Amino acid sequence: MSKENFWARDLGAGQRVRSTFLARDASVRNDSRGVPYLSTMLLDKTGSIDARMWGLPQELLGGIPEPGYVHVEGQTHEYRGMLQLKVERLRVLRADEVSEEDYLPVSEQDRRAMAAEVLEAGWSFRDDNLAELFGLIASDKDLWDAFCEAPAAKTMHHARLGGLLEHSLQCMRVAKSLAKLYPVNRDLLVFCAIFHDVGKVRELSWDLGGFAYTTEGRLIGHVVLGERVISDYIEQLPDFPKELALHISHILLAHQGEQQFGSPEIPKTLEAILVHFIDNMDARLGMYAESTKNVTDGGWSHHDNPLRRALYVPENPESRWNSPSEAT
Amino acid sequence: MSKENFWARDLGAGQRVRSTFLARDASVRNDSRGVPYLSTMLLDKTGSIDARMWGLPQELLGGIPEPGYVHVEGQTHEYRGMLQLKVERLRVLRADEVSEEDYLPVSEQDRRAMAAEVLEAGWSFRDDNLAELFGLIASDKDLWDAFCEAPAAKTMHHARLGGLLEHSLQCMRVAKSLAKLYPVNRDLLVFCAIFHDVGKVRELSWDLGGFAYTTEGRLIGHVVLGERVISDYIEQLPDFPKELALHISHILLAHQGEQQFGSPEIPKTLEAILVHFIDNMDARLGMYAESTKNVTDGGWSHHDNPLRRALYVPENPESRWNSPSEAT
Amino acid sequence: MSKENFWARDLGAGQRVRSTFLARDASVRNDSRGVPYLSTMLLDKTGSIDARMWGLPQELLGGIPEPGYVHVEGQTHEYRGMLQLKVERLRVLRADEVSEEDYLPVSEQDRRAMAAEVLEAGWSFRDDNLAELFGLIASDKDLWDAFCEAPAAKTMHHARLGGLLEHSLQCMRVAKSLAKLYPVNRDLLVFCAIFHDVGKVRELSWDLGGFAYTTEGRLIGHVVLGERVISDYIEQLPDFPKELALHISHILLAHQGEQQFGSPEIPKTLEAILVHFIDNMDARLGMYAESTKNVTDGGWSHHDNPLRRALYVPENPESRWNSPSEAT
Amino acid sequence: MSKENFWARDLGAGQRVRSTFLARDASVRNDSRGVPYLSTMLLDKTGSIDARMWGLPQELLGGIPEPGYVHVEGQTHEYRGMLQLKVERLRVLRADEVSEEDYLPVSEQDRRAMAAEVLEAGWSFRDDNLAELFGLIASDKDLWDAFCEAPAAKTMHHARLGGLLEHSLQCMRVAKSLAKLYPVNRDLLVFCAIFHDVGKVRELSWDLGGFAYTTEGRLIGHVVLGERVISDYIEQLPDFPKELALHISHILLAHQGEQQFGSPEIPKTLEAILVHFIDNMDARLGMYAESTKNVTDGGWSHHDNPLRRALYVPENPESRWNSPSEAT
Amino acid sequence: MSKENFWARDLGAGQRVRSTFLARDASVRNDSRGVPYLSTMLLDKTGSIDARMWGLPQELLGGIPEPGYVHVEGQTHEYRGMLQLKVERLRVLRADEVSEEDYLPVSEQDRRAMAAEVLEAGWSFRDDNLAELFGLIASDKDLWDAFCEAPAAKTMHHARLGGLLEHSLQCMRVAKSLAKLYPVNRDLLVFCAIFHDVGKVRELSWDLGGFAYTTEGRLIGHVVLGERVISDYIEQLPDFPKELALHISHILLAHQGEQQFGSPEIPKTLEAILVHFIDNMDARLGMYAESTKNVTDGGWSHHDNPLRRALYVPENPESRWNSPSEAT
Amino acid sequence: MSKENFWARDLGAGQRVRSTFLARDASVRNDSRGVPYLSTMLLDKTGSIDARMWGLPQELLGGIPEPGYVHVEGQTHEYRGMLQLKVERLRVLRADEVSEEDYLPVSEQDRRAMAAEVLEAGWSFRDDNLAELFGLIASDKDLWDAFCEAPAAKTMHHARLGGLLEHSLQCMRVAKSLAKLYPVNRDLLVFCAIFHDVGKVRELSWDLGGFAYTTEGRLIGHVVLGERVISDYIEQLPDFPKELALHISHILLAHQGEQQFGSPEIPKTLEAILVHFIDNMDARLGMYAESTKNVTDGGWSHHDNPLRRALYVPENPESRWNSPSEAT
Of A50, C71, E134, F29, which has the most beta carbons under 10 Å away? Predict the structure, then answer.
C-alpha cells in the first residue's frame, strides 16, 4: 500500500485525514474523566503530528506496536498552540503492507538542485589548488553520492536523507556572504564550509531500518574521519601546497570549536573561527526550525528538544520557516 | 608637541623612525650577554609596536614612567614573526608636551560614514513601528553622539573611540546578509543587531584618562542598561505593539547567549539566537584581528590575548585584515 | 461534593481514611508475589500521601486517569519511614463532582496575618524614601493582591497559593534579625528582602489549572521583571535619591547570587550579598521541609527532590517543622 | 622601639603621620613625569594603608627590604576613593628595633569578652548531653586557649589572632537568632555553629613569623581534623547518644556545603544546611568588610580580593562596618 | 525449589534452557507486527541475560511481578551482538518456592582463596609497624568477615557478595607489581591498596533484600569511615609512628583523587597518587567487564552503563574477560 | 669552557661549589635587614638548585642576564626543607664561553639501553601483524632517532632530551606487568603503550635554543599527529587487518581519556582505557618526582608545579626517587 493523500507536511487545522503513518512513542493513558485514550506521534518522511484516540476498541487497549505502521482516519485541530490529530479509526499494518521509504525522513528540498548549487560554487574557485581538489572530490562518484544522500546527524538536526547536503549547502551560502564582509581567504572558507562535516558519510549509516552510528564512527568520530577523507584526496595531488593542506586539516579538526565537543585543537585562524561559527549557527537554527514546526504563532514548543529550552514563535512573525532555497 | 611623521599603523620593517608614543609595560632587563636593555610597548591612537633599547644612559637604567610619553628615534625590523623597533635615542616627555588625544585609541574608520550607513539602514525599515522607533533614537542627539563615540569594550575588542559604532555597523551588515538566507523578521533582526550593545554608552566612560567602568555599569551591567535605554524610547510610542516590545527586550537581554555570560535569559526565538551569534562572531573576529596586527605571514601571536590561545597568520593569506568598510 | 473529614496534612499512622484526593503519578505494577497493585500519590491543597491498592477490580487494572480526582477508603500505616495509605476502595470522580480549589496547593498560614506583619514592618521604616516607596507599593491594590496570592515557584519550593508571601515574610524576618548583627542599612535590607522575588507575580500564572510560566516570564524572567516593577514605582517619586534607586536595582538584579543562576550582575554590596544569602537559605530550608513532610523520625526522604539528595530526619528532633509563624 | 602614636586603624584623610609599620609589596616605579617613587603597603596589627614616596634618597632607589620594618613620616590624603599616605621621610629598621607582635594582625575585639559570650551560651544549653560535652571542651585549657587565639584562615578572612573566636562567636549569634525563626534543634545548631571550624587550631600555626599550614593541616584538612577533635571528646562521655554523635559528625563534615570545597558529604539535615549557610555568610561578609576597609563612601575596592569582584561602598551608608559586638 | 541446571554465567548461543531466575525490568510491548511480547532481564547470582517471550497467555498480558522469581523454558540465540533468551514457557513463583541466596549476586571467585592471598601478602610485610597493624586487623574476626563478604558498591562495579574482597585483592596485585617499577614505600602502598575501601563495610548493608546504604554511610561516607576504622586499630598500637599514621590517614582520605568525588584532601604523596590510580583503574575495568559480559565479539554494549558510553568488544580479542585469579 | 666538577644532580648540603650554570628567574631583592641580595635558580642538564647571593658588587646590583650563563663559587646548605646555594662569587659568561648542550635538560638514563629494552619487547611480539608493524617503525631511522631524542613535553613532565623515550619505556613496563593481571590483548596493549605519544616528535622541536611547539604541533596536535604516523606505517602493510588498524587508531586518539583534554573520542575498549591510565599515571608520577627533587625528608614542595598542589616527601621514605631502570 503506497502512502496516499495526506503527508504530514501538508496538515493544517480543521482537516479530515485518512492516511498511513509510522507511529512512535505510543501509550495508552486515562483522561481526567478516567477514560483510556491512545497518545502517539505519527510520522512520515515529510514530518510528524501528535495524535490522540478515544473510544479504543478492545484490541488497542493494550497499546500498539512501537514503532509500527498504522492507517488512521480522523480530524485535525489546534490544541494549546500545537497541531493535533484526533483519530477515529486506527488499523495496525504489517511492514510489508507499506513502502518503508515513505517513512524514512528525507529532505524536502530538491537534492539535485542543491548538489548543482554546491558544484557551481566549487567550479568557480579562483584558487587553482582548491579548484583542483574540489574537482577530484566531486568526481569520486561513491563519495559524492554518499555526501548527497547522508543525513547530517542521527537525531539532533537535519536528521534526514539529504540532510548533510542541505546543511553543507546552507553553510556554503553563509560562508559566501560573510566572505564579502570579512578579509578572509574566500575560496578556502567556502571549501571548508562545504566539507566540514564530510566525515558523517562514514560516521553514520542510513538504510530502511533508520540512522545509526557505524563502528568506525564510534571509534574515530566524524571530526577525524572527515579530515582523513580530505587529506587522502590531497595526497593524490603532489603539488598541493603543504601549508594549505595543513590549514585545511586544522579547519576541519577544529570545527567543533571547543575540545570538550570533540575537536582535538581549537580554532586558531580566521577561517577556522568562521567555519566553526557558521556550522554551529546553522545547526542551532535547524534545531529551532525542527522543534517549532507544529507550533502556532504566539505558542511555545516543548522544553524537551536539542536546545533544551522552550522555544517561542512570535505572534506576528514576518515569515515562517521555509526551506532555505525558497528563502534566498 | 603634536604627534608627527610616524603613526604606529604605518610602520613596516626596515624603517627609520623618529616620533612620540605612549610607553606601556616598560622594564629594564639584561640580555644573554648580561647587558641591560629596556623593553616596552609603544602606542599611539592608531596601534602599537614592541620596542627594545640597548646602551641605556644612566637616567634610564632605573626604567621609565609607566605609562608615560616618550620621544624615540630608531630602526624597525622583524623579529620572530613580529615587527619590532630598535630604539637608539629616547627622551621622556611631560604630559603637557603632547596632545593626549593622539594616544587614545580611536577607530581607523570614518565615523561619519559609518553613522551614515547605519542611519540609511534604519530609514529603510519597512516595519512602521521599528522605523518610528529607530527615528526616535537617531534623533536623540545625546544618545546618538554617545553611540557614535563610545568604545565597544574596556580592553577585549573594539576598545577604541568609535569602536561601538564599528562593531554595531558590522553586526548590522552581517544581519542584513543573513536575513537573505534565513526566514527571519528582517527589520527586527537588523534593529537589534545595531542596538544590542547600546548599554555600553552607560556602562563605560571614555575621556583622556582612558576607558573605565561607571558605577552604574558595574552595578547594573550593559545588558540590562541597554534593554532599559530602548524600552524607555518605546514607552514614548503609545501604539507600539506590546508583543514586539517584549520580543525586543528578550533579544537584547539574551544577546550574551548564556546566563553565565550575563544574560538573565537565554535566546528562545530565531532572531534572539541569530543576534547572539552575530555579536559573538564579530567580537571574536575583532579579537583575532587585534591580536595578530603585528604578526607576519606564517607567524604566531602571543598566547596572552582575549582568545587565550596563540593565533596563526597563514603564510600566504589571500588578504590581510582590513577595515571592514574596505572589505565590502 | 466538597472535600470532607480528612485533609492530607492531618493524616498520621494507623488511621481509617475516607476522603477525596487528586491522584498523581498513578501506575499499576505487580508485587513480588506477582499480584498487580495500584501505586499513586494522593494530594489535596494541604499536602500529599503515597498510596497503594491491592485486589484491583477489573476496571482499575488498566490504571486511573492521570491526574484525576478519586474517592478512597483505606488505612494509613508507616512503611520504611514514610507514611502510606493502603487503599481498600477507590472510585474515580468527574471534575465536576469536586471543588477544584480544594486540590490546588495553598499556604497553611493565615494570609491576612502574614500580610499584616509585612505591612507593619514597612510602615515602621525610618528611612523616609523607603517608607514612601513602600507605601506606594502597598497601596497599589492590584500588585499587592497578586503579591499576597502568588506562589513562589512552579514546583521547587513554596509552590502554593500564598507561597510568595510566606517566603517574602520569612526573608523579612531573617533580614530584621541579621540587621542587628551586621552593620547594614537596615531599612534597605528589609525592603529588598521583602520584594526580591516580586517579579514572580508576572513570571507565573495561577488558576484552577495549576501553576505555569507566562510568556513574559519565559522571555524576561522574574529577576528583571521584579527590578522593573520596583523601578516603575520609584519613577513616580521624583525626589527619590538616584543612588539609592541604583542600589535597589542592583540588589534585586543580583539576588540570584551568580550569573549562571540568572543574575546579570553578582552582589557587590553588603546588602546585596545578604539578600542573596537570605533568599537562598529560606528557599533551601523550604525544600528540606517539603521533601521530609511525610518522613518519620530516623527516616530518609526519597533522593529525587529539589535538593537532589536523600534527606535525613533525626531520631529525636527537638521540634518538627512547623509553619514559621508558629515558630517565632 | 615600641609602636607609638599612629595605628593603621586610626588613620583618616589629612593627618600628619609619624610611626613605624611593616612594609609589604614595595617597589620603585616612575611616575608620568618620569620621576621615580616608592610604592608600598604599610601594615601593623590593626590594619593597613597604601603609601607613596617621591624624592627618593640614593639608598632607597634600589627599593626596600620585602617585607621589612620602616619608620615613616608623612601626610595622609584620599586618592580615587582610597586612603593613601604620602611619605616624606622613611628609615629602614632592623627586626630587633621593633616589637614584632605589634605587626602581627590581631582581632580588634576584646578576646576575653568574646570568649565569655561563647561560654555563657554553652552553659545555658538545655540539652544535657550537649551541655556536658561543651563543658568538657571548654575546660580543656590547651584546646580552649588555642581556640581563642587561632586565626580563622591564612589569608582569606578573619586572618588575625583571635579571628577564629571572632568568626565562631558571630556564627553563634546568627545561629541563636535563626533558631527563633526555624524549627531546629536549637542547642545542636548553636553548638555546631561555635565549633564548625575548630579544626583550624590544628590546620594552622601562628607565631611571630606569620600564619602557615601545618603538615597535618595539609594532609588531613580542617574539616576532618575538626570532626576528630569533637569526636574524641564525645568518646570520653560513655552515655552520649550514638545518633546525636553521628549527627554532630555529619554537620561538622558537611559544613563546607559542597564536596568540591572539601566536605566529604553534603548537608542532609536541617541543622547541617543551616550551619553551612551561617559559616559561608559570615565568611563572605568578613571578606567584604576587610576588602573595603579603606574605601571611602561611593568608592570601589580593588578587584583583586577573596570575592574576586570590585566591591562598592554606597554614598550614604547608614552605618559603616563596625566590630560585630558594637553592632549588637 | 533449589536453582538447578542452568546458571546465567554458563549460557551460550543455541542452548535449550529450563531454569529459574529473578526477573527485572519486565514490561509487555508490541512488536512491529503489532503482537504483544514480554521483555525482561533474567538474573541469578552468577549473571544475567535479556529475555523475550511471544505468544503470551492471558495471565501474562498484564506483565509479571517486578522484581519476581520465574521458572522459564526456552532457547538462547544471538541478537545484534548480545546473547538473548527466547522464552517459550514462563511460570511466576512465590518467594518461598526459591532459595533467595541463589539470586543475590555473588563473586564467582573462591572467597577463601582470595582471602588467603591477601593474608599472605600481609604476613610478608618487612615493615614491622605495618605487619603488626595488618595482623591486628586480620585477627579481628568481625571486621575481617565483613571485609570478605561485603560488596564493593551498591550498583556501579563489583556489586556482589565478596566484591569488596575481589576489588581489594586485585588492587593489591597491581600495587605489588607497580612497586617494582616506581621507587615507593612498598609495604605502605600494598597495605593501603588493600584497605582503601574498607569503609564500605560500614557504608553498605547486604542481606537477602539486596544492597543498601546505611544511615552512617549516608551521613559520613565510606572515605571517612574507612580512615576511622584503620585509625582506631592504630590507636591500639602505642608505638606506631605518628608520621606513618598521618600518612596512612592521608592516603585513605585522598583515595578518591579529587574533592568533587568525596575526598576532603587531594593526593599529595607518591603513594597517595598511586593508590588513587590503582583504585580508579580497577573500578573502571570492572565496569567495562560487567557492561560487556553478554556482548559478542565485534559488538557494542548498551550506552546506559556506569561508564556512560557504548563499549566495544573487538572482533578478535586475544582473550575474553576472566576472573583475575585465572588471569595471573 | 666546558662544564666541570659540579653537576646540579650531585649537589648535597654542606658542599663547597665552584661551577658554571644557566641562571633563570634572577632578581635583586632586599632582605629583612634592608640588604639587597640576588635570588636565582641555577640549572644545568642534570637538574637545578635555588641560589642566593649577598654582598653584591656594583655591577650585579642591576641584576644579571635572564636567562644567562654564570660561573659561581659558594656553599650549599638546607633552608626550609629545600637545598640552597649561598653564592660568594659570581661572574656572567658569554654564550660562546660555554658548551650550550651542557645546559639543555637531558635524561639521566642511558638512551641506548632504554632503546634496547623497547626494541627487545617489540621483537618478542607473538602477534605477527604487530611484530611486522613494530619492525617497520623501528627500522625507519629518522623516526626512530627522533623518538629516542625528543622530550616528552615542553615543560610539564619529562621535559628533557630522551624524555619521550623514558616515558614510553616506563609505560611499556607498566603495560607488561598489567597484562599479567587483566585479560587484555597483551601485544596490542604494549605496542600502544610504547607509541601513544609518538606524535610528540612532530609536535615539538628541540635544539640548543630550547623546546618549542612546531606550527604543525599547534594546528594539529600530538594526538592526531601520532595516530597519523602509525596509520601511515600500517598503510605500507597491505595485509594488516582492518579492524586491528581501527582499534590502534582508537587507542591512540583516545589516550588523553577525555575530550576536554584533546581526545576526539573517549576510550571505549579495555586496551584504550588501560593505555589512558598508564600514560596519565606515569605522567603524574613524573610531575611528583620532578617537583620534589630538592625537597628534604619531611618537607614540602612549592605549591606552584604542574600538579598545582604542595607535595609532601615523608620523613622516612623507604626509598627516594631513582631512575626507573635502577628501580626494576
Answer: E134
Report the relative pairing of strands E82-92 and E68-79 from DSSP bridges: antiparallel
Q: What is the pLDDT of residue B326?
A: 39
What's the pLDDT at D34? 61
List own/partner pairs for D30-33 with CB under 8 A and 24 or more apart. Answer: D30/B62, D30/B63, D30/B64, D30/B65, D30/B66, D30/B68, D31/B65, D31/B68, D32/B65, D32/B67, D32/B68, D32/B69, D32/B95, D33/B65, D33/B68, D33/B92, D33/B94, D33/B95
Q: How far is CA A43 from CA A189, C307, E24, in A?
A: 37, 39, 32
d(CA A137, CA E324): 51
Q: pLDDT-derived band of residue A325, with 50, 70 and 90 as boundaries? A: very low
- Residue D317 is predicted with a pLDDT of 67
**pLDDT at D33 (0 to 100):** 62
Q: Tell me which chain D residue has its CA closest to the CA of residue F303.
A: D218
F212 touches chain D (CB under 8 A): no
Q: How confident is the model at residue E209 (pLDDT cuts 50, 70, 90)?
A: low
Q: Mean pLDDT across chain B, nearest whole number?
A: 89
Q: Would you state the pLDDT for residue B104? A: 83
Q: Which residues of chain C have pLDDT under 50?
A: 1, 320, 322-328
Mean pLDDT over D221-234 rounds to 98
In the predicted structure, residue F328 carries a pLDDT above the cut 50: no
Spell out which residues of chain C touch residue A312, defining contact as CB-CB under 8 Å: 215, 218-219
Band of residue E318 on the pLDDT scale cut at 50, 70, 90? low
D10 at F interface, C-beta within 8 A: no
Q: Is the pLDDT of residue E199 over 70?
A: yes
Q: Cβ A309–B268 below 8 Å, yes or no?
A: yes
For residue B277, the distance in angstroms to the closest alpha carbon of chain A comes to 7
Q: Do the beta carbons of residue D183 and residue C322 sit within 8 Å?
A: yes
Does residue A133 register a pLDDT over 90? Answer: yes
Q: Give C250's contacts in chain B (Cβ within 8 Å).
A: 219-220
Provide the pLDDT confidence category of residue F209 given band limits of 50, 70 and 90: low
C-beta of residue F44 within 8 angstroms of C-beta of residue F21: yes
Chains in contact with F, counting 3 or more C-beta pairs less than 8 Å apart as contact: A, B, D, E
Do the Cβ atoms of F178 and E174 come within 8 Å?
Answer: yes
For chain B, helix (H) and strand (E) counts, in that order, are 11, 7
Reported as a pLDDT band with limits 50, 70 and 90, residue E67 is: low
pLDDT of residue F101: 79
Whole-complex ipTM: 0.87
Chains that touch E (3 or more CB pairs under 8 A): A, C, D, F
Task: Tell if the CB–CB gap between F32 and D64 is shorter than 8 Å.
Answer: no
Give, for D218, the enclosing helix (H) or strand (E). helix D215-219
Give the gap in angstroms from C-alpha F135 to the nearest C-alpha of chain A.
Answer: 25
- Return residues 252-311 of F near A (CB < 8 Å): 253, 259-265, 268
- Evaluate whether C252 touches C227 at the Cβ level (below 8 Å): yes
Counting as contact any 3 or more CB pairs under 8 A, the partners of A are: B, C, E, F
- Those of residues 189-208 in A touching chain E at CB distance below 8 A are none
D218–chain E Cβ distance below 8 A for any pair: yes
What residues contact residue D297 under an 8 Å CB cut-off, 6+ apart?
A: D313, D314, D315, D316, D317
Quick one: pLDDT at residue D199?
98
Q: Is E177 on the interface with F (CB under 8 A)?
A: yes
Residues E160 and E103 sit within 8 Å (Cβ to Cβ): no
Asked if C35 lies within 8 A of E62 by C-beta distance, the reply is: no
DSSP run (H or E) holding D175: helix D163-178
C-alpha grid cell for residue B323?
577595515
Chains E and B touch (3+ CB pairs under 8 A): no
DSSP E252-266: HHTTTSSGGGT-SS-
